[in-house]
Amino acid sequence: MGLSRSDLERLADDTYKGRILQSSVYCERCGYNLRTLPYVYTCPECGNEYNARPLKMKGIFLPHSTRMPVGDIAASAFSLGGALLFGINGIRSADTTRIVIAGMFLLMSLPFLWRAYRGLRRLAHTRAVARQIAMEEGE
Ligand SMILES: [Zn+2]
Questions:
Q1: 72 C-alpha to center of ligand 1: Å?
Q2: Could you tell me the pLDDT band of residue 118, with boundaries at 50, 70 and 90?
Q3: Distance linking the first and last C-alpha atoms of the chain
Q4: Which of 3, 32, 88, 93 is most buried when burial is the number of CB atoms within 10 A of its CB?
């Protein structure tokens, strides 16, 4: 009989289920301090389900996990710049090849733009939660 990955996850969760968080760990959604609550539980402030077991850390605020999406912003700027350059050039010279290339650059920029947008939103959320934590800890 083999143990599946989810069986192992459940076993690992069970070993932490009765334990109480001894140090300050914060809710990912609202920044509530979860100290003195169980490792695997629901945030009493916002209802966010969390798992603070080491290696799992689901629903837990991790300030270092969110960075400025520099690569996606640069790739967006590059592909939008290419689209603009070929587009303007193609329209001015009535060159369909350049207009098609502009379209390809534009298409290429979409996933980067989406990822940059998601990254920036995540960053804004993380900063808001960090401010919330700082405010509550300062009281
Ligand atoms: Zn919460």
A1: 29
A2: very high
A3: 54
A4: 32
